[in-house]
Amino acid sequence: MEGPITEALIDNFSLHIQEDAFSFTEQGEGPCNCLAALSGRFCSSFMTLCSMNTFETGPIRPPSEAGSYLIRLTRGCPWNKCRFCRTYRRQRFEIRDVAEVEADIDAMARIRDELMSGQSVHDEYGWMVSNALNSGGTTAFLQDGDSLAMKPDAVRRILGHLKARFPEISRITSYARSRTMASRTVADLASYRELGLTRIHIGMESGHDPLLEIVSKGATAEVHIRAGRRVVEAGIELSEYIMPGLGGRELTAGHALDSARVLNAIGPDFIRLRTVCLGPRLPLWEEFSSGRLTRLSDIDIVREIRAFIEALDVKTSQLASDHILNLLGELQGQFPTDKQRLVEIIDRFLALPREERELFQVARRAALVEKLADLDHPGIQARARQLLDEIYRHYGRDGVEEAMREMMERYI
Ligand code: SF4
User: What angle in degrees, to the nearest 10, is found between the helix axes of 400-409 and 378-395?
Assistant: First the structure.
C-alpha cells in the first residue's frame, strides 16, 4: 500500500538527503553525489569537454569527505559485482591517464589561485573548489570505487603532483577494495603514505564467509584481514565499513560475530556502520524475494549491531554511525572506552515501549532526529506523533515496518 503519508515522509526525508547527498555510499545508485550535485547543475555523467579550468569528478565519496577536493584516478569499479551495489553498474571500469589526472589537479590549482586572489569563478568547477576551500582546503579524496587499482608508480606520480600543486593539503584519502590492498606490498602502501595518502576506506561489509559469497563481495574474511593488516602496517589510517542487516535473519549471528572477529584481527582506526537498504532493483533482492533470506526489521538490525559491538575487542578503533540509513545515529564512540556506553544506548532504545520505539523510527526516517534524546524536543515529538498517527491510519497498527521499508526503498 502506498498513500499520501509515505509521500509526505519521503518529501521530508528527501530534503535532508539532498542536504547530505554525500551520505550515500556504495549502496544502490542514489542521487548523483558529485560535489556539484548540491547545486543541482552538474554531474560527472554530463562531463563537459576538458578546457583549461575544468576537471572530472566521480559520483560518490564518503560523508567525511564532503569538503575535500575530489581527484578522479579511475572511472567505476574493477569488480562491479557486489549484489547490493548499483553505483557503477552502467560505468565501464577505466584507469585514467596520469597526465589527464595531473591536468585536473592543475586546473583545480588554477581555480584555487583565482579564488584566493579575490576573483569570482561562476561555474560548477569554481563552486567545487570554493566548497573545498571553505572547508579549509586541506583535504583531498581519490575517486572512484577502487582508485588504488591504478599501478603503484602511477599512484605515486599523482600523489607527488598533488602535493606539489597543493602543499597545503594534509589529508588525502581513497576508497579501495580488500582484494586490491591484499595484492599490494606494505612497501608500496608505505610509499603512498610518505607521499601524503593518509586514510583508506574499505567496504568490508561483513566478515562472514557464507554471506560474502552470497553478496559476491569478491573477498573472503581472510582477504579482508590480510588487506586490512597491510594498510595498518603501512601506517595509513584505515576505515572499514560494515553493513548491518545484510544477511537477513538466517545469517545475522554469523554476520555480527565474524565481522567483529575480522575487525578484531585488523584493528582499523574507524569502523563505520552502513545499514543495508534492500529493494527490488538490487540483484541481492532475489535472495529475499525467494525466501532464501528473511529481511530483518529495524529492531532486529539494532539487536544485530548490539551483538556485533559486544563481540568487538578492538583497542584503537572509533565506531561511527554517520549515515542516514542507520537507525541510531548516536552509536559513535572510541573503543574500548565507550563500548559499554554504546551498548547502553542500544539497550535504552530496545527497552522503550513499542509505540515510543515506533515514534523514534518514524522521526529518524523522516530525518527529524539523530539521537534518542532529540525526541524530547516538543516540536519534533509533535511532528513525529502526527506522522506516526497517519501511518497507523494508512498502514494499520502493525504497518510501521512496512511504511519504513517503503520509504527506505526509494533511496536505492
Ligand atoms: S567493490 Fe564497492 S564499488 Fe565495487 S561493486 Fe562492490 S560495493 Fe560496488
Answer: 100
Cα dist from 7 to 113, 144, 276, 366, whole Å: 45, 33, 22, 11
* pLDDT tens-digit series, residues 185-238: 999 999 999 999 999 999 999 999 999 999 999 999 999 999 999 999 999 999
Is residue 87 lining ligand 1, measured as CB closer than 6 Å?
yes
Q: Which CATH superfamily is domain 4-409 in?
A: tm_1862 like domain (3.80.30.20)
Ligand 1 proximity of 80 Cβ (cutoff 6 Å): yes
Q: Can you give the residue ranges of every domain in the chain? A: 4-409
Residues in CB range of 363: below 8 A, 6 or more apart:
369, 374, 375, 380, 381, 383, 384, 387
Atom of ligand 1 nearest to the CA of 144: 3
| Closest CA to ligand 1's atom 3 | 145
Question: With bands split at pLDDT 50, 70 and 90, how would you rate the model's confidence at 26?
Answer: very low
Question: CA quadruple 126, 127, 128, 131: dihedral positive or negative?
Answer: positive
Q: Is the pTM of this model over 0.85?
A: yes
**pLDDT tens digits for 47-86?**
333 457 899 999 988 888 999 999 999 999 999 999 999 9
CA–CA distance, 145 with 175 (Å, rounded to integer) = 6
> How many angstroms separate the alpha carbon of residue 266 from the centre of ligand 1?
21
Cβ(216)–Cβ(228) under 8 Å? Answer: no
Query: b/e map of 34-47 (b: 16 or more CB within 10 Å)?
Result: bbbbbeeebbbeee
Cell digits for 133? 576551500
